[in-house]
Here is the input.
Amino acid sequence: MSSPILISLDAMGGDHGPPVVVAGVLDYRKRHGGEGVRFLLHGDETAIRAEIAKSGLTDDVCLVRHTDKVVAMDEKPAQAMRRGKGSSLWNAIEAVKTGEAGAVVSAGNTGALMAISRLLLRMSAHGLERPAIVASWPTHRGITAVLDVGANIESDAEQLIEFAIMGEAFHAAVHGGVKPTIGILNVGSEDMKGHEEVREANRILREGGAGLNLDYRGFVEGTDIARGTVDVVVTDGFTGNIALKTAEGTARYISALLREALTSNLQSKLGAAIAMPALKKMREKIDPSTINGGPLLGLNGIVVKSHGGADAKGFGNAIRIAVDLARSDYMTKVGANLGKLDAVFDHSSPPAAPAGEPLQ
Amino acid sequence: MSSPILISLDAMGGDHGPPVVVAGVLDYRKRHGGEGVRFLLHGDETAIRAEIAKSGLTDDVCLVRHTDKVVAMDEKPAQAMRRGKGSSLWNAIEAVKTGEAGAVVSAGNTGALMAISRLLLRMSAHGLERPAIVASWPTHRGITAVLDVGANIESDAEQLIEFAIMGEAFHAAVHGGVKPTIGILNVGSEDMKGHEEVREANRILREGGAGLNLDYRGFVEGTDIARGTVDVVVTDGFTGNIALKTAEGTARYISALLREALTSNLQSKLGAAIAMPALKKMREKIDPSTINGGPLLGLNGIVVKSHGGADAKGFGNAIRIAVDLARSDYMTKVGANLGKLDAVFDHSSPPAAPAGEPLQ
Here is the structure.
């Protein structure tokens, strides 16, 4: 039997709040069983209980902790840190800090989630100022984890290596990689390509100097992501964010062209209708809700961000990721490897205090 | 009648050499008429003349200048600079330097083309160490020019503004933009997002301080490229290269999924056969050969790089871009705007000498 675990949920986060969060719990249980998994839902008790009653879930699976306070989707991170105490987002994270819950999932304000997580849980990755966001990217060969796609705009060699450590453990825990392979995103595959930061990280990982025992494969290019050349693609948050959004834009553009082509006249509509079952199966492979859920990595605790607009299936997948991470050896494996890094990079000066405007 | 012009061609460049270069000339004339356009083909005279004879082109349209020497596709740029003198690539560029030709097109070794162009033509953009490569990106709203997708790995504010100036003039000359709009690629649209370089460039362009008279629209995100939000997307060569290759990889992945779906069983094969005319039309919109041809911008002369594996249609399109640029006011417009930039950025120290290993 799987070990019992409590997952903390920000029931008020996202564009839809309690209806999608509770439906997400239901979807998760339908798809993954969820044996031994209980949920602690933070937010408006009346609204949450109404959804639970409709869903047929029982009180022993869904605990509810009331709060009136909510962090708005457009609230600035600094403001959320100052005024967010006691909100559903804050309380959901705090349950991880106290050890009551094994992980937290929120579809709320990303900046606020990141800032309050950092404040309450603190960073475990010493080179990072902010948690890294990992994207699960569908490829020819399964799922590739790409990080950082978030907030670390300029990443030095140490940060890139931390991404490698965390991405590898994430892929093993969530996407079943037995010994996940790792590449650093660059403009070419030769060792002398790119800027100083990627070259230094490449050199250290190639030499295996820190004793990290990672299956590092060198530089990869943009085309290698969808090709699935490696299981983990490491990049700074600026490049990663732009690569992810450019891919999303490209996928949307091609889908629109396809839709247009298949509805352009009666003949193509007929063809599309006949091929529809196969086209539907194809669409599932790149359906965002099957890969929804981006963990914030580098914290002393497991925090998973769901897309604000995710549906029940999407939120259910974010829960799945949180459970897989919490039940795996992710935290101990990452902790051990990050410790080895301290021998390579000097941390004699104390880490920056988590105050002020944390996100750009 | 259009003004007469001579286009210099490296007939030995690319994966195919003279057959595709001559077929490209033919394709260009078929699609665009090519009134007043003559070609100067550099390379093995016997091989070139054999192709010309087959093609039915006449000697007054295609001049041939013989050389035995060829720069190999895998030759290092520094080596090509030292030993490339007298090669088809070198001579093709030199014809632009002497003023004999209005532009040069080559499908040869990119690094060598860039290095020898820089050596012979010199940079006109003072902030750039290397020419910028511009990609013509198909979008929901036409073609968007994205630059740099090439060699300028780390771009400061001055370089980014030079990309804006050159991209705007390129779009107007080649893609018919009347007053092309410009955006800088970033991780968000708010002015405080991103790193120092993009924020400084954004500030200067917003204030219009240099009197550039550009239609600058602020920051854009990765999703905005395929959306066609602006006509010109400005970014450093590292991010641009990765965005372009990530988009290519995504397009290839989705095409593969589509092919797989439409051939998965008899029923979907039937549907695909019926919808085929519409699907073919769709494929044309994202056919790489319709957008082949990336000019190297920032040089004192017009140099267009064709993809090494381009077919006749693709090479013909690269010729079209070279002719459009050479016949437009691109060079004078860019020259005037770059001059205004000198008042903003200090160039008291002389530009770096174009020696040594020019490409990473």
About this structure: The CA atoms of residues 6 and 100 of chain A lie 7 Å apart.
